[in-house]
Design a protein that fits this description.
This protein is mainly α. It is built from four helices and no strands. Helix 2 crosses helix 3.
Length: 97
């Protein structure tokens, strides 16, 4: 008996990787929410890091790399702040009832 493997589009893989790399989800959380195996998502992430490391490192100069790092830190901070505001809004909405 041959085993049927599911295939995923490149767009699905990119969006799944964005959950991990840009939105700060852990691989296990993202995989669970997408209904895929976390090992598969981890493999996609390792492959993408290998491609980025070899192709993009030479094209980014020091200033761009520093700005990219600063923007990633700022993005992480803003995501955390947004989550705090969501929780505060829910708390105050429940308090009024």
């Amino acid at each position: 008996m041959s085993r049927k493997y599911r295939t995923y589009t490149e767009e699905f893989k990119r969006e799944a990787l964005k959950l991990v790399t840009e939105q700060g989800y852990k691989i296990a959380e993202a995989a669970r929410s997408l209904g895929i195996n976390e090992n598969l998502l981890g493999k996609w992430k390792r492959r993408s890091e290998g491609k980025e490391g070899s192709e993009c490192q030479g094209s980014i100069n020091g200033d761009e790399r520093a700005e990219l790092q600063r923007l990633r830190v700022e993005n992480r901070r803003l995501l955390i702040e947004r989550e705090i505001l969501k929780k505060a809004a829910a708390f105050f909405a429940n308090e009024k009832k």
